[in-house]
Amino acid sequence: MPLDISRIKALCFDVDGTLSDTDDQYAARFARLLSPFTAILPHRDPNKAARWLVMAMESPANRLFGLPDRLGLDDELHRLGEWLHRERPSNHHFQLIDGIQAALETLRPYYPMTIVTARGPRGTDAFLQQFHLRQYFAGVASSQTTPRTKPYPDPILWSAAQTNVDPHECLMIGDTTVDIRAGRAAGSQTVGVLSGFGEESELIAAGADAILPSVAELPHLLAK
Ligand SMILES: [Mg+2]
């Protein structure tokens, strides 16, 4: 369904793959270790699988939502993931996707904005603090804010209440089908971004109202 821009009164942003880029160095190391399993990985692509796993390890809730299905993970591979997680350097820093700060600055006068992430509250705060982004958001829904997180609509309904808009006036922006499903379940419109792990075809199939290369293009889309 084409996006109805006139309906949008508030913006809800996912974090991982939408505002925050995955640690590419870590993912590359992971991909090397996954390469013997190439034959059983989706698209036979260890790089993509590695990025998925890195994200899943940062967002424990995501493990519940079809990750093993998606990756065709067997127990051994899962144990490898656990081992890598333990080996991960503790001084991990986030990376911001290019153009995010400028986009948020452009959008701020026009829309109240919230965070809707399945990441835990500490990781979410650490990300927002590292880039001084907290100032842009009227509310932050992490994995602990509502009893159920994405793909349930609860954090988007919470965000709508925080910004005094109806859920159907919200636009949920995210990089995976979990974001699109949550948005649709809330009655919101959705934009899928290709800066993370989602494929364009699967985001469209999940019902995304628009697809963008990244959030950096969102001001341009909404200005139309
Ligand atoms: Mg994401």
Ligand roster: magnesium ion
Would you tell me the overall average pLDDT?
A: 85
Structural class, by secondary structure, is alpha/beta
What is the CATH class designation of the largest domain? Alpha Beta
Helix content: 40-55%
Strands of the biggest beta sheet: in what spatial order?
A: 5-4-1-6-7-8
Number of domains: 2
- Main β-sheet: number of strands, strand sense, barrel status? 6 strands, parallel
The fold-level CATH name of the largest domain is: Rossmann fold
Q: Could you say which overall geometry the principal axes of the C-alpha atoms support?
A: globular
Number of strands: 8
Instruction: Give the CATH H-level superfamily of the largest domain.
Output: HAD superfamily/HAD-like
Structure in words:
The chain has 224 residues and is an alpha/beta fold. It has two domains: 5-21 and 94-223, Rossmann fold; 24-87, no CATH class. Helix content is 41%, strand content 12%. It contains ten helices and eight strands. It has helices at residues 24-34, 46-58, 67-71, 75-87, 100-107, 121-130, 154-162, 177-186, 200-205, 218-223; strands spanning 10-13, 20-21, 95-96, 113-116, 139-141, 170-174, 189-193, 210-212. The strands form two sheets. A six-stranded parallel β-sheet has the order 5-4-1-6-7-8. Helix 1 packs across helix 2 (46-58). The longest helix has 13 residues, at 46-58. The radius of gyration is 17 Å and the shape is globular. The model is unreliable at 60-66 (pLDDT under 50). Magnesium ion is lined by residues 14, 16-18, 174-176, 196.
